[in-house]
Amino acid sequence: MVDPPPVVDLAEWLAGFTSTMSKAQPYREPTASEAGDGVAGLHRLLGGGDAGVLLRPLGFIVTSGIDSASGRPFSLAFSEPAPGKRAWAAVLVDLCAPARLVIGSPHPVADQDSEQVGLAVWRRSPGSLLLVAGAHRRAAGGLADPRNHTASLFHRLAATLLAAGLPHLQVHGFADESAPDVDLVLSPGATTAGVPITRVADSLAANDLAVVRTWQTPMPQLDGTTNVQGRAAAWTGAVFVHAEISASARASRRAAVIDGLTGADLAGTGWPGPVPAQPVAGQFPVAVDTVNTTGTSPYAARADHGHAERQATLDRIAALEVDRPVVLRYAARLTIDHAGARTFAVTATGPLTVRLRNVAPADGATVLLEVVADGVAVPVSFAAGTGMLTGLIPPFVIPAGRLGLFGLRHSARTGRWTLLTAGLEQ
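Above: the chain's sequence. Below: its structure in token form.
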């Protein structure tokens, strides 16, 4: 007789999983081999295979059961707690339906209760997968923050699911003072706003929540545009919804937040799949009504290209970037006027000492000097006050008939030019 699967309170499990997380906990990123096994373990977890063979050697516990709140069967894999260093991730898979939606919680504990909000959305979304980071975002000096690190196992797992076309709803939290009188900030991250995210915004607003739509009202500090999971979504063409929830909304309006997030039915909007151009109010550039079949995007053109204007811009850039050298007459002591050009050429018939004009340029200004030694070997030195990188020792002798190249950069901090490179053309 086979024992029935255990009934588990997943909220209690999640509280235990996150209980040892802190800024001081140990953490290290997985090796490439470990990350590969982790991704392969995810595939087995989704496909009903023996994920434990791959995940247990990585410190994961792999289990299954019935969720006490939703009554749905699940598979669960979660990494070792502190003081273990392999604090990588937890993956909760709903087994009642094929995977349709990923709910990401990259900042458990740090974004207080954001992981519990993610679990509540999972419980209301059949066929969903909950992905929780395994460490505090500030552990190991911030190395544990999967929002910024593509080598993290959280990111590797998320990117695998995005590559499969699954929509990704990522749950974050912000302090009330960061955006007063705002309950949620919604952003498509690095992707394009479309029907899925507008449906989420409308659903949240219908639950009487104050929602900022960043494609209409920019909010750079909370828009998640540098989020590496969002960038992975942009590359694969998958839906990415970055939801920042205020502290007060997480604490006192959580039911409305969950109703709003689940009422949009992200997995039922015609996705997963590449997101073509869509006419979304406030989006710039505006979307076109058809999708090109060629271009630089691996999936679809997302906005009006304006090809004629773009070509004119490229032509202007090309014209500006033509940097023909100013040809100087040879003199034993040569002064370069950096205000007029960046590239200078001289044909030298004897020793050459180079100085740059005293007028200070902008910080970071560069000069390239090419010297051809005509008939004799030419020693090149630079006037007193010119800095040198370690290892560059003047004079620099250019053999007869050869070309020498010298690169200099000005620093406003030191108030002088520094020689960065000195070499001969092969």
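Residues 270-277, 288-314 have pLDDT under 50 and may be disordered.
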